[in-house]
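Hey, I was hoping to borrow your eyes for a little while. For a while now I've been wondering how a particular protein folds. The fold is given in discrete form, as structure tokens running alongside the sequence. Could you read through the record and tell me how the tokens relate to the sequence? Take your time with it, there's no hurry, and the full record follows here:
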Amino acid sequence: MANSEEGLYSVLATLENCRAVLIGSGNRETAQLVSVAILELRMKLNQVADWELRALCDAVLGDEARAERSQDPKSSHSQHRRSLLKLVK
């Protein structure tokens, strides 16, 4: 398990370097995609469940954003994705 975890931390460092290069070269959209992969890997390494991240996003967004998301199911995914990206930056 320790070797596997060390390998994942190595991958994480590589992804963070890749994101920095992408941002530096003006590839922000691709950097955002890499940020999502970084978040997913960090969640795995720190044993954070999806529901815990959702609860954090809801707490950060506040009541108004939660109400807006509950009214429009189509905006829920895009709003959630923006929330994730804000947390990763």
Remarks:
- The longest helix spans residues 2-24.
